[in-house]
Write a structure and sequence with these properties.
Number of strands: 6
Strand order of the largest sheet: 1-2-4-5-6-3
CATH superfamily: Hotdog Thioesterase
Strand content: 35-45%
Structural class: alpha+beta
Number of helices: 2
Order of helices and strands: EEHEEEEH
Largest sheet: 6 strands, antiparallel
Distance between the termini: 29 Å
CATH class: Alpha Beta
Shape: globular
Helix content: 10-25%
C-alpha cells in the first residue's frame, strides 16, 4: 500500500487493505491515543474531546479511495485531489481504540476524475456515510507552477 500513496507519517492514515476488487475496497485504520491530534490534550479532557477529527476521518477515507483507484488500474499519473463531497452524514464519533473500516466503491471514471461512494464503520457503529466523493488527478507540474 505504501507504494500506492504519497502520504507518509504522520499523514498516512491507513493501516492495511483487507479486501479489494477493481470496483470496491475495504481498508482499516486504527485510531490510537498516540495520534498527533491528541498530543496536546490535558488530562482533564472528557470523552467528547477525544472524538477523532472529521478532517482526518475524511482524509483517511480519501486515502482508501486513492488506493482503490490505483489498484483498479484506472488512476492516471499525478496527484489525486479531493474535488467534491456530497451527501455526507456523520454518525457515531470515532474514539481512540476504534478500528475504522472504510468501505469504498468506485461509481464512475471519466478521464482524470472519478466518483466514489461508501461508508466508514467501527464495531458495527456507522461513523461516516459519503454519498459521493469526486477526485481529480492533476500533474505535479500543474501544482508547482
Amino acid at each position: 500500500m505504501r507504494g500506492l500513496l504519497r502520504q507518509r507519517y504522520p499523514m498516512l492514515l491507513l493501516d492495511r487493505v483487507v479486501a479489494a476488487t477493481p470496483r470496491s475496497l475495504v481498508a482499516v485504520k486504527a485510531v490510537t491515543a498516540a495520534e498527533q491530534c491528541y498530543a496536546n490534550l490535558g488530562d482533564e479532557i472528557d470523552a467528547g474531546g477525544l472524538h477523532y477529527p472529521l478532517a482526518l476521518l475524511v482524509e483517511s477515507f480519501g486515502q482508501a479511495v486513492s488506493v482503490l483507484w490505483a489498484l483498479g488500474g484506472g488512476a492516471p499519473a499525478g496527484v489525486p485531489l479531493l474535488a467534491t463531497l456530497r451527501d455526507v452524514v456523520v454518525g457515531s464519533p470515532a474514539l481512540p481504540g476504534d478500528v475504522l473500516e472504510h468501505h469504498v466503491r468506485l461509481e464512475h471514471v471519466s478521464g482524470r476524475s472519478a466518483i466514489f461512494s461508501g461508508h466508514t464503520e467501527s464495531a458495527g457503529r456507522r461513523i461516516l456515510d459519503i454519498g459521493s466523493l469526486m477526485t481529480a488527478v492533476r500533474s505535479e507540474s500543474d501544482l508547482t507552477a
